[in-house]
Automatic annotation (TrEMBL), chain A:
Keyword Chaperone listed: no
Pfam family, one: Complex1_30kDa
UniProt xrefs under InterPro entries: NADH_quin_OxRdtase_su_C/D-like, NADH_UbQ_OxRdtase_30kDa_su, NADH_UbQ_OxRdtase_CS
PROSITE patterns: COMPLEX1_30K
Record's protein name: NADH:ubiquinone oxidoreductase 30kDa subunit domain-containing protein
PANTHER family with a match to the protein in the record: NADH DEHYDROGENASE [UBIQUINONE] IRON-SULFUR PROTEIN 3, MITOCHONDRIAL, NADH DEHYDROGENASE UBIQUINONE IRON-SULFUR PROTEIN 3
From TrEMBL, chain B:
Swiss-Prot/TrEMBL keywords: Ubiquinone
Domain NADH-quinone oxidoreductase subunit D: 117-288, 293-364
An example Gene Ontology molecular-function term: oxidoreductase activity, acting on NAD(P)H
Lineage: Archaea, Methanobacteriati, Thermoplasmatota, Thermoplasmata, Candidatus Thermoprofundales
Protein name: NADH:ubiquinone oxidoreductase
InterPro entries found in the cross-reference section: NADH_Q_OxRdtase_suD, NDH1_su_D/H, NiFe-Hase_large
Protein's UniProt keywords contain Iron-sulfur: no
Gene3D superfamilies reported for this sequence: Cytochrome-c3 Hydrogenase, chain B (1.10.645.10)
Keyword check for Transcription regulation: no
Length: 159, 364
């Protein structure tokens, strides 16, 4: 599949807006939260994005933003006549009072720990995640330190 | 036989850093595994938000102690994308040379750490002896042996010293002879092959889904290398090839993952030689580097261990608003229950060693 055809097809999908090219091989889009699961399934099944590079949560006060970086490593998507691998950057807006979204870790196993990390450090809830625990911080840690309103308090521990 | 959980780590020779692998065994056979991280978490992303852009290069150096220049480089590359800084051509060549020297040092570090995992202590001594050669080379321009802080936003710290090319050439020639010795010592060794062949298998398709990249993916025969596919610096102009190996049709085992790294070292030698041949004269630092940045940018680079991705959001101040590090080992370790299942407990050091773990970057 060619990268240009992909852009055309993406534009036609409902919930996709602000499609732009960041670099020759990277598309950036905004996506509505409600259609996210169906859209990601389509990306994986029909458009050869078989690798989830990264899931980032950003605290754009007051609201959150999730950024998905997905890439095609097998070369099924061709970028013009170059050897470059295609990539897509998906931005999803999340309200601060309901920071939850459908998990994609059943589509890409590699997304599993990225979602756990976003939960751990930013407090985003991934609905349907098989094992949503803290991954870097210890269990019982209070708060989500990468949030901008996080205040570090020194707690007296009982020994 | 009754199933039970065994905890390997955080202090275990297999772990190559601090992490715990809990394995569920049925007799000697692994049924399930549960990796646990966090022992080395230093909250680099949070610290980075409070430091200026150029200060963060000291943090990125400490992300991975075996491959520090490649991590600083991918951070610097992302900042340059964010600030729209043009890097002089000579600086790009110097960076490429440093990156490949670092890749050689990192792969040798890995190979040296892998051999004791298989009970071959002598191997560690041989590989680490050669790693010293490259540490000496890296020390010449940067002034330090482990944490170089050599990549700067807009270029490199200083130009290469006099006689660097001759010294490098002498060491590369010596190293090529040593690689032939290794072929006799390891690749043709029956014991080494018995420990590594047909162990820790996964297919290329599985690997992509599990987030495994870099040499581990190329060991499955997938022709994927970000130096070509998302090309940066001057890799386009250099004469080199992507190395792939496979154990069978479309899958890798520990031996193919070992071999692909040996091949990559040969290819790195080729890249360094070609860089010296084509390197022009000129400045090594961009004349104008801004302090503030706004917007967002990301770059992917081929780290010694796989795909490194740095994502930066700037809010117009001199400090990053959000800085996200993607470490290739983070996802590779998360997938370990998949490729450990079904093998014997004694195979764990061989399998986990072969994927080249570095906990510094994983725990951030």
């Amino acid at each position: 599949m060619n990268f240009k055809d992909l852009q055309k097809e993406l534009k036609a999908i409902k919930g996709v807006s602000n499609l732009s090219l960041i670099r020759q091989n990277v598309i950036k889009i905004d996506l509505e939260k409600s259609v996210s699961k169906a859209f990601f399934t389509k990306l994986k099944e029909d458009f050869y994005f078989e690798h989830c590079s990264l899931i980032t949560a950003v605290d754009n006060q007051p609201d959150f933003e999730l950024v998905y970086h997905l890439s095609c490593l097998s070369g099924e998507l061709t970028v013009d006549d170059t050897k470059m691998s295609a990539m897509i950057e998906v931005h999803i807006h999340l309200k601060r009072d309901s920071p939850s979204i459908d998990s994609v870790s059943d589509l890409w196993f590699g997304a599993n720990w990225h979602e756990r990390e976003a939960f751990d450090l930013m407090g985003i809830y991934f609905v349907g995640h098989p094992d949503l625990r803290r991954v870097l911080l210890p269990e019982g840690f209070a708060g989500h330190p990468l949030r901008k309103d996080y205040v570090y308090e020194i707690h007296e521990e009982e020994w | 036989m009754a199933e039970m959980w065994i905890s390997m780590g955080p202090q275990h020779p297999m772990t190559h850093g601090l992490w715990t692998l809990k394995v569920k065994v049925d007799g000697e056979t692994i049924v399930d595994a549960d990796p646990e991280l966090g022992y080395l978490h230093r909250s680099v992303e949070k610290m980075g938000e409070r430091r200026k852009y150029f200060m963060n290069t000291t943090l990125t150096d400490r992300l991975c102690y075996a491959s520090s220049t490649t991590w600083t480089h991918s951070y610097v590359l992302a900042v340059e994308e964010l600030m729209e800084v043009e890097v002089p051509t000579r600086a790009q060549y110097i960076r490429t040379i440093m990156l490949e020297l670092q890749r050689l040092a990192s792969h040798l570090m890995w190979a040296g750490a892998y051999m004791p995992d298989l009970g071959h202590i002598t191997g560690a001594l041989y590989f680490w002896r050669d790693r010293e050669l490259f540490l000496n080379l890296l020390e010449l321009p940067s002034g330090s042996r482990l944490l170089y802080n050599y990549m700067r936003i807009g270029g490199v710290k200083r130009d290469l010293p006099d006689g660097f090319e001759q010294k490098t050439e002498r060491i590369l020639k010596l190293f090529e002879q040593r690689l032939d010795e290794y072929a006799d010592l390891f690749e043709n060794s029956k014991i080494f092959r018995m420990r590594t062949e047909d162990v820790g298998k996964f297919t290329g398709t599985q690997a992509m889904n599990m987030g495994i990249t870099g040499p581990n993916l190329r060991g499955c025969g997938v022709k994927h290398d970000l130096r070509v596919e998302d090309t940066y610096e001057i890799y386009e102009e250099i004469d080199w090839d992507i190395c792939t190996r496979e154990a069978g049709p479309g899958y890798s085992d520990c031996f193919s993952r070992y071999m692909v790294r040996i091949d990559e070292m040969k290819e790195s030698v080729r890249i360094i030689r070609d860089c010296f041949k084509k390197m022009p004269q000129g400045p090594t630092m961009s004349s104008r580097v801004p302090v503030r940045a706004s917007g967002e940018a990301f770059r992917r680079t081929e780290d010694s261990r796989g795909e490194a991705l740095m994502y930066l959001v700037g809010d117009g101040s001199d400090r990053p608003y959000r800085w996200k590090i993607k470490s290739p080992m983070f996802t590779t370790i998360s997938a370990c229950p998949h490729y450990l299942k079904g093998y014997k407990l004694a195979d764990i050091p061989a399998i986990m060693g072969s994927i080249d773990i570095c906990i510094g970057e994983t725990d951030k």
